[in-house]
Every structure is written in C-alpha cells, then in structure tokens.
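Reagents: none. Just compute today. Aminopeptidase P family protein.
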Amino acid sequence: MSDVYATRRGLLRDRCAAAGNAAALITRPANVRYLAGASPPGAALLVGPSDDMLFCSHTPTGEADEGRLDEHLRVSVLSAPGADPAVAAGDMAAVVRADSLAVEEHHLTVARHRALRSVAPGLRLADLGLSVEQQRLVKDEEEISCLRIAAEIADQALGELLESILVGRTERHLALELERRLVDHGADGPAFPTSVGTGPNSGRSRHRPSDRRVEEGDFLTVCLGANYRGYRCEIGRTFVIGTSPADWQIELYDLVFAAQRAGREALVPGAAYREVDHAARSVLDSAGHGEALSPWTGHGVGLEIDEDPQLAPTAMGKLDACVPVTVEPGVHLPGRGGVRIDDTLVVRPEADGGPELLTITTKELLAL
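Predicted 3D structure written out:
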C-alpha cells in the first residue's frame, strides 16, 4: 500500500504544480487518511515540492480508528503542548522555501488560517478546494475490496437480527444489538449511528431510535453500516412484524422497491447524477409522493459515509466506473409508517456485468 499512497500524493503534487502552488496542506481527516494511510487526531499532511511529512500531536498508534501509516512517510511528532500540526506544517513549507501553499479552506478554521499567515508571512496561501475529494471519487480495487467486506459484515449482522425475537423490544435496544454484532463480525465499528424505526417511525430517513417497542403488524425499517479499515458501507431494509402484511403495506413496499430498482438500473458509467435520481424519484412522484421525498436518492461512500457524488435533482456531473454509491429511496406516511430500501453498489460498465451489488440481504417483503 505504501506505493499506492505515494502515487496518490504524487498526483496531488502534480495538480498543485499545474495550478502554480509549490506545496499542499491537507487537514481534513478523511483526506489525510487517503493520502497517508492514517489520520491521527488533528494531524496535518504537508505534500511538499519533493518530500512529504505528516505532523501530529502524538505518535501514530496504528489502531483501526487511525489506520496504518505509510511506512515511508516522514512523521514529525510535536513536543510542545498545544502545538498545532497545521501551523507546524506551514512553518516547514516556509523552511523549504515554498513560495505558495494550497490549503483546504473548506476545512480550516479562520483562526488556523490566521495562524498560518502569522507563522509564514511570506508564504502565499491559495485554496486547494475539493481536489483531494475529487481524487477520492473513483476507488481502486483494494478500496472496493474493503467496502465489499464492510457490506458482508453488515449483511451478517442484519441477517442474525432477523432470526431473533423482535416483538416487544425497543428501537434503541435493536440498534445497540446491531452495532455490537457489527463489531463481533470484524467491523472497526458502525459506519454511522444505526437507525431502527418501527410502526409510525418506519421509513423515516435517519430516524434516531427511540424507546418505542416493536408491535405485531408494524413496519420495521433498519438502516446500518459497517466501518472496515476506514471504509464505510450502508444497507437499509423494511420488514413487517408478526403477521402477513396489509394491502396498503404491500402496495407501498412494491412502489418503493420499483423506485429502488429503477435507480440501481440507472447506475452506468456516463449517466448524469441527476438522471439516476430522476429514475428513482419519478416512480414515487408519479404515485403522488413527490412532496415527501428526500432531497437526494443516494450518495457516494468510502472513507466517509456521505461523500461525493450526490444523486440529487440539481447535482452536476456524471458517473465514472468504480464509483461506489447508495441508492436509497423511501416513503414515509405520517402517523402510519413507511418503507425505505437502501443498497451500496459499485458502478461498473455493462461489459463487466453492470452495477455490482455489495449489500445482498434479500429485498423481499418478509414477515418476521
């Protein structure tokens, strides 16, 4: 992997040079991890004209939450209490006589930006923008392998929950059990706070689990994800508890399933982000649910659970191969409940079989 990180930093160095910047300062944790292999708390990465260095407040531990550092990367552990790694990196840029430094203005606070100017007044600061995020968009096969394992872990955790007794248990209890099962199966932790919604709470996007207990006849919506080596996936399913589903539940489920299938089938290289959103959204909109829909149909996943691209009506851009995304349409009927179906997939060309489905738990409407 060391060669991979060096290559990634080399690509960023070339982009900076083309924009007239001698060096880049990376402070956003996911971007630091992408380029360095690890992101200790508060760490800052200096990608210099010819050499790179990670500045941090403590020696990297190699623990799962930080990642494993590129062994060929120079590390500077700051000894002064309260020293800012970003400011130390800016000082080093001045020492190596870089005349300009591209920084992540969307992540740096105003105070840190001012501190950089004060420590290196002769250094011209430019905005790096979303250069690293754009570089992260297309995943290599090792990254996709991590996502695939994360999806397998999430599928296992969900599958085991479905085999247990659910009636009478609270949403909060089920969410905690799912997160424990994720870790039991090898996850570093949950990819995001697990959502469990029952009855009138079902189908709500990012519902925070409550003390409501599961009852017979409820819709049960579960949305969870695993974090494996920093890479995060997402899966969401809706089930019926205890009895055969009512007619309205079948009708609503079939509608959301059709929307989700349309979104999945639209995932082809070259498809506009908004076209994927429209494919799923139009199915629900035509059935009269347009006003209640989420502002997006899906989003990218990787080192963050919600990253580019955004599959939304106004999103600009087109899909590339090897971009992992979610497709997660849903409908919530206030006071009654709803349905949400969520998968993580990787965009693949038709010649390779089309989109690769990573989360494979059945989408059949099961009565549990």
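The chain has a mean pLDDT of 95.
Action item: order primers for follow-up constructs.
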